Amino acid sequence: MRKAVVVKHQAIQDDLIYDFGVHKGYDTEFYLKKGFRVLGLEAVPELYNAAVENISAFGTRATLINKALYHRAGETVSFFTVPNKDDWGSLDRNIAEKGVETAVEIEVQTVDLMTLFETYGTPYYLKCDMEGGDLIMREQLLSCVQRPRFVSIEMNDGNEPDILIKCGYEVGQIVNQWFNPFKTPPKPPREGSFVEAQFTGEMSGLFGRELDPAKWRPLSEIADIYRQWHTLRALDQELAPGWLDLHVCRAAALA
Question: Which of 6, 20, 162, 180 sits a CA distance of 20 to 30 A from 46?
Fold first, then answer.
């Protein structure tokens, strides 16, 4: 039986966002401008340094960590970067290369979710955009007693809702990231402060209550929606472009 981990900080910190897969810090910057504090995780040193420089004006409201989320904290592991596609880095060479690129192996230090919760507290929202790392995150999330109100992960096989239901989340919304450049933050804002934003393919976009209120569905229905999209994409990618993120929460968080 999986043992639940009780972290020191039980209360959710409503002004805190975890940004896993910081890349160059564009999402982190958006969250900071909206008034949140951010704990960011980025494994690739060059991307980490770029993000640190990008958000330097926000001072101590942002904490960035140059480590990879892993099954155990405090280890040194291989990580595979992709020079031609710097947002494809992964702990898994095959996931990083995707059959079309050549990865470069580096060594990185590791941390786990429980250590971060114990050190920095439980966030309001956890964004996880790590190639292959989403599986590690949600498995570790299942072992935590206190969990974020909102979580987003990339969808890869349609099985993502199952473990998130076990984590206590009830409703979900699929967001096609390809359409992010056509979306704008709601005004008045429904999360934090209003920020003018032009989202790009390197950003995760809106989150939490700022997502379309009409598109939340019971989490048990999400896998079927994903399968329908995937079937259409297999038929013709132009009919189902892009890539999908899954946002989840308890229904009460939307009240």
Answer: 180
Domain-located, residue 118: yes
pLDDT recorded at residue 78: 98
Nearest to 240 by CA among 249, 250, 229: 229
**Residue 168 CB neighbours (<10 A):** 12
Q: pLDDT (tens digit, 9 = 90+) per residue, 232-255?
A: 999 999 999 999 999 999 999 999
Q: How many CB atoms lie within 10 A of CB 113?
A: 27
* pLDDT digit string, tens, across residues 38-47: 999 999 999 9
In a domain, 152, yes or no: yes
| Of 188, 181, 231, 235, the residue nearest 205 (C-alpha) | 181
The answer to whether position 5 is within a domain reads no
pTM to 2 decimal places: 0.94
> Token digits for 13?
């910190």
Instruction: Report cis status (omega within 30 of 0) of the bond before 188.
Output: yes
Which residue(s) pair with 64 in the sheet? 40
Is the residue at 1 inside a domain?
no
Tell me which amino acid residue 207 is. F
